[in-house]
Amino acid sequence: MNATEYIWFDGKLVPWQEANVHVLTHALHYGSAVFEGIRAYKCSDGSSAVFRLHDHAQRLINSAKILRMEIPQTVDEISAAIIETLKANKMPDAYIRPLSFVGYGEMGVYPGNNPVHTIIAVWSWGAYLGAEALEKGIRVRTSSFARSHVNCSMSKAKAAGNYINSILAKIEAKEDGFDEAIMLDTNGFVSEATGENIFMVRNGIIKTTPLTSILGGITRDSLIQLARDLGYTVEEQQFTRDELYTAEEAFFTGTAAELTPIREVDRRTIGAGHAGPVSKHLQKEFFSIVNGDNPKYKHWLDSYTF
Question: Which one is catalytic: 65, 158, 280, 298?
Answer without folding.
Answer: 158
